[in-house]
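Hi Q.,

Before the meeting this afternoon, I wanted you to have the MGD prediction in hand. No need to reply - just skim if you have a minute. The sequence and ligand are here:
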Amino acid sequence: MSDQMDLTAGERTAYRTCPLCEATCGLEITIKDGRAVHVRGDRDDVFSRGYLCPKGTALADLHHDPDRLRRPLVKKEGVFREVSWDEAFAAVQAGLMPLIEKHGKNAVGLYLGNPNAHTMAGALAVRPFIKALGSRNVFSASTVDQIPKHLASGLMFGHPATIAVPDLDRTDYLLILGADPMESNGSLATAPDWPGRLRALKERGGRLVVVDPRRTRTAGLAHWHLAIRPNADAFLLMALVQVLFAEDLARPGRLADHALGIDQMKELSRPFTPEAVEGHTGIPADQIRTLARELAGAPSAAVYGRMGLSTVGYGGLATWLVDVVNVLTGNLDRPGGAMFPTPAHLPKKQKPGGKGWTFGRWASRVGGFPEILGELPAHTLCDEMETPGEGQIRALITIASNPVIGLPNAARVDRALAALDFMVSVDFYVNASTRHAHVILPPTGPLSTAHYDVNFYNMSVRNIAHYSPPVLPMPDDERDKWEIFYKLALIFSGQGSGADVGTLDDFVTAVLVGPATQKPGSPLFGKEAEILAELKLWKGPDRMLDFMLRTGPHGDGFGVNPDGLTLAKLREQPHGIDLGPLEPRIPGILATPSGKIELAPEPMVQDAGRLKKQLGEKVADEPLLIGRRHLRTNNSWMPNIPVLVKGPDRSVLFVHPDDAIRWGLTEDGRAKVVSRVGEVTVPVRITDEIRPGVVSLPHGWGHDLDGVQMATAREHGGVNVNLVTDDERFDPLSQNSALNGVPVRVFPAA
Ligand SMILES: Nc1nc2c(c(=O)[nH]1)N[C@H]1C(S)=C(S)[C@@H](COP(=O)(O)OP(=O)(O)OC[C@H]3O[C@@H](n4cnc5c(=O)[nH]c(N)nc54)[C@H](O)[C@@H]3O)O[C@H]1N2
Ligand SMILES: Nc1nc2c(c(=O)[nH]1)N[C@H]1C(S)=C(S)[C@@H](COP(=O)(O)OP(=O)(O)OC[C@H]3O[C@@H](n4cnc5c(=O)[nH]c(N)nc54)[C@H](O)[C@@H]3O)O[C@H]1N2
Ligand code: SF4
Ligand SMILES: [Mo]
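Predicted structure with the ligand bound:
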């Protein structure tokens, strides 16, 4: 840390990237007497240039939050007590190993939450633990979020992490569907300062079009807002494809040589004329035609879709069609279009072709739902916990997650967690979910751990590398997340809670390095011992990252390219390194067996049959519930920070004025929202920013439950929207939960 210390006047300044969302802003943090006293945007950060949102400044409040757990908790007679780490790990072993011995490995389930993906340990050090656990009952927030994108990318490009992102800073035309980056700061498209970047797009003469049932702040910035009916984007995108072919506007350009299935798309889209989809989308046919023509005519254009596309009943189709349109307009993999990043820590694939990617290698026990990325869909987690028989989940480990607030049919999740034989949570709050745990293992606070955005630099609109060492030293009696994961790995591999984490770290490193040094012809050939010795400088995820950076496209190759990148060199750049704009990667990046883009993968073609069937059906006119995000939230877990919850209540229902009259609702009144699974009563806000027939309620609220130990969050409890979202509503193609477009009934509440 000495490279960042400024000891003048007893204060020092430290720099780090904010880990809270995908935007990766650089923070400048003032440290006084061991406390972070001030946070501002780092003006010298190569990517964010001083931008930050209110959550960035709250990172210090989070670190110093008195409710944030510092020591492990074990529940005795229903009450949590602080214990030593040895005692806590022994309790995990005593609670889980007998269940595994008696009922087998699948008896312990795992649920990984969103912040896990935002930590180095979560990205790099969780594997050994999952492997040792050996359970098929692995679930994550991916199936209430972005699994459709992995599915589409895996099938089209051959790898589920080969994700095309809009070339935000160079595009002439940006079509955003179902994303609200003015509030979310962007997702699956890492870019700090979306507000500034969108304004820059307009200033350079570019056009911004937003498709969203609500006139969000992002839509408010757009030249054109199309207020679509929920879950109708697959119809709209199919119609765009239809128009591109019908009007001879499909111009894949050089991609024609690298794509299979172009003619098949022409056939598939044929019935989806703008007129045929008009009723489903609520968008007039002539506007759909105009949109297709604009996209085809723009010098460069990028189509980008997010939550509103993926968390609906046609999430898989809609997400896939985004890149189909990018290909057909010739915009995939060209500057200003949708491009693939080249992160510094991943090898740069040079030749097209590979093994491809599959899913459905096994199925869930109760519902027979397919595995995707080694995970089962979250919509069936309760089925697996509640249904007796061999393979039933009797104990659950949650990591950085709050399923009682984040998953559909939350009341059922709450009951199922309460009924478990044992529950272990790796988390630093006693929240709505972890209150059911028998053991809570809190990782050290966010300022005491190192950071590098392993996942997000692979979805970044520029190629960036930024490593942040811990800002504050980790107290001796705290544990970094990777140490917790490795301890759990040791327990589940039978070595016991007393075994040494360092030995496992060496083993994991050897497994990583070994194969790379055994390929004849590789510059690393025969250098295993030498490389392992050099890596001894670091521990845990740092060590893996050093190896990845050094063998990556800019790396020093352990001496092959002496001026190249190493972790030691990256650490010397507290504001990060800018490795330039995105560059074309096709064909080298394609890993499908054909070595081509598979424009019309079989599972998509099949599911398009479902869409076609609905094309001829009548459009139901029941109210549909959608979600919403706010700049000052982060899913369920930042409402304990006073500056983030001050101001008017945000857990309120948005209702269109016409609907308010129809349903008898008033501005200061309350509404009862009822669905198949439950009901909530919420304050009403009447606003014409929402489409008629659609109501919106944000997620992440509902903290006022017995046992929750988050004082501020309890005061600002709010209503848990997932008490009405339905676990039986999901996309059968991608298995993603349909959190948006939930049919509800709305009544005035007494
Ligand atoms: N402030 C803040 N930032 C966050 C988060 C947060 O909770 N708060 N969460 C983070 C996470 S985990 C994620 S995944 C990202 C999500 O990032 P985004 O996807 O950008 O965020 P959302 O606000 O969910 O945007 C979804 C939009 O889709 C619209 N929508 C709903 N249904 C439909 C539909 O059927 N069709 C169309 N076209 N639109 C629809 C909604 O009105 C909403 O505006 O945000 C991340 N950033
Ligand atoms: N209705 C509806 N439901 C939704 C959504 C929606 O739009 N609408 N969005 C969905 C989406 S996109 C997502 S990603 C999920 C998010 O839902 P979850 O994945 O459950 O995540 P959070 O609610 O953010 O809860 C995160 C937990 O992680 C803990 N935590 C934070 N940092 C760390 C860390 O470094 N280590 C550990 N071990 N713990 C940490 C926090 O204390 C908190 O308890 O919600 C989903 N649910
Ligand atoms: S935009 Fe995201 S990364 Fe940037 S300060 Fe806010 S929460 Fe942190
Ligand atoms: Mo998410």
